[in-house]
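Hi F.,

I've been meaning to write this up properly since the lab meeting, where we talked about keeping a consistent format for the predictions we share between groups. The idea is simple: the sequence comes first, exactly as it goes in, then the structure tokens exactly as they come out, then a line or two of notes. No screenshots and no reformatting. I'm using this chain as the first example so we have something concrete to point to.
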Amino acid sequence: MQIISRPSRSLWRDAWHRLLRNRATIIGACVIVFFLLVAIFAPVISPHNPLQINSGKDYLPAAWEKTGPIGKGGEPGFLFGTDSLGRDVLSRTVYGSRVSMVVGFVPVVIILILGISIGLFAGYRGGRADNLLMRAADIIYAFPSLLFFIIVMTALRDTPLGQALNGLILLFVALSIVSWVGLARLVRGQVLSLKQKEFIEAARMIGSPSTRIMIKHLLPNCLGPIIVSTAFSIPSMIITEATLGYLGIGLRPATDPGALFITSWGALLLDGQVAINAQPWLLLTPAICIALIVLAFNYVGDGLRDALDPRMAGTE
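Output, unedited:
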């Protein structure tokens, strides 16, 4: 009797295969790539300079509206209308994607470095080192994150650090200081469950140093949960930045037309809520963009969680 069997695949190839079969994940990834391209090619895509003031064109409605709330009709050159100073809403939204994308990725890289390093060290060493690091993590975790962000952004806003890149560097620091705790706890838990396994004992028996064991043996076996946690952390960073921008303590408004970061979606939300009746698209455009990018990352995170879950293996 002939037995037909599927060629064996590694765990990572099997996870990649399941990930590609998840339609929601693929759609989410396409949305993320779209916004990344928009952020990179913002000067090419935006129809106008985001800081250009068009005299007499304040609060223009969307191009398809013949009559807006204040009597003006839309113009073809301004697809989503203009703000109170006559600046193009679409162009400002396109440039706002740069801040959200950078805030979504840069702090997460810092969080990965801190969280993985502290989690690996605490879980592997144990004893007093583990107890000291986890108690410090508990203290940081107990402090309300949003309150901490508001205090840091307000207190250090006028310092050289707060003025660097219009406040973007300070935002990176504030987001990273308190957000590494969850990842450190996750990595520590994985290390505690793995460090007594046979392959770790074998590595110790042949004289492998602790650093090599942590990097070459423990870390690769923790990558699955780390990847999933990272995918869910990115939208959290984007929402936090939008919240701070809406409160008026996020990115400083740029005045230089050649600046890399002009405005953020959170700042556009602040402008839009004031003019919700005169120009609703000033609020709706960044709100829709934030919703789309957050949903996209959540779909990708769900897909990664399902693909990397060992219990899902062999179910297809």
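Notes:
The mean pLDDT is 86.
The CA atoms of residues 160 and 167 lie 9 Å apart.

If this format works for you, I'll send the rest the same way.

G.
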